[in-house]
Amino acid sequence: MRILVTGGAGYIGSHTCVELLLAGYEVIVVDSLINSREESIRRVAEISGRKLNFHKVDLLDKSGLSAVFQEKKIDAVIHFAGLKAVGESVAMPLHYYTNNITGSLVLFKVMADYGVRNLVFSSSATVYGDPAALPITEDFPLKASNPYGWAKVMLEQILRDLYHADPTLNIALLRYFNPVGAHPSGRIGEDPRGIPNNLVPYIAQVAVGKLPELQIFGNDYTTPDGTGVRDYIHVMDLASGHMRALEKLATNPGLVTYNLGTGKGYSVLEMVNAFAKAAGKNIPYRIVGRRPGDIASCYADPSKAERELSWEATRGIDAMCRDTWRWQTKNPNGYEEP
Ligand code: NAD
Ligand code: UFG
Asked: What is the predicted pLDDT for the residue at 289?
């Protein structure tokens, strides 16, 4: 089986490529490197001991993308490519909609041109907005509060419409909760550009001494300790979720939607404490005001994926923090040479 991975040089894509290669799939990566480096691809090959095919192509470049499909017959696509910074999407909606929606439309058209009928799509818990109840099941209403989130809601709808028009397609919409952690080798991990937006990479940079302190965005939420609660999931568990989704597509299921989360919520303070334990360091922090657009709590009901994909997250927050810390200490400048 030959799998095309868009965004395969990025954080979740690179970890998934390792699992794909170890499982014996042939892997072709298409990535513009707008938010990643080719070094991650080199390390994926090193960890897996297998070669993969890399094309530096932007999804907006239809002829460049078609040339990749022309070269070898592709059995399935895993579509990670997209921009993901929520705040940036508010400031630059046209850039986000063009990259994430137009880029995806080009991909779907080229897939149709070459008769590729199997797709795994990276969706997000962001499509649930501020949920009315917890835990979140897949049938909750969909909404968004920023262009990044709207693009996920719209792309899901576009894929449902494509499926209704052609029920021979097989599409898995995977709604990730909060991906964290790194490959246990410490060779690949999340390499944010500039100051991280997300909690765990920020804590890691405080722990390693690159940033002075963590700002905790609010301790007056209706949660056990007042800080925000999220469903953090180890990126290796997410990677194995993609393996199970591909196996599901091979059974011709039509369009299927799954939450990929652990089902457990942890607060910001719980994550700070878990990381301090993993790193053996104190994490200085200061409570500041709430971040606009944040919600109090968000965690999955992952039972549908457990039932239908035989998939379950197996790594807890100690492993998430330990693996993030290993990656951070071994690569203080990410993939960049010091
Ligand atoms: P990432 O930025 O590390 O990886 C995305 C990759 O896509 C990058 O390598 C980037 O260079 C590439 N890319 C972006 N636009 C492209 C284009 N037009 N053409 C070709 N390549 C392009 O992000 P990630 O965390 O690995 O996220 C992967 C996917 O999962 C994204 O779609 C993201 O929205 C989704 N997701 C991420 C999270 C999260 O918190 N990390 C949560 C839910 C969903
Ligand atoms: N937080 C801080 N300080 C920081 C960063 C975050 O206190 O410096 C808090 C937030 O207020 C929140 C929690 O840590 O309570 C988690 O915040 P993240 O930014 O790590 O994650 P979010 O849940 O806000 O959003 C992430 C992705 C979204 C995605 C969503 C669900 O950034 O793109 O998970 O998958 F949609």
From this structure: 98
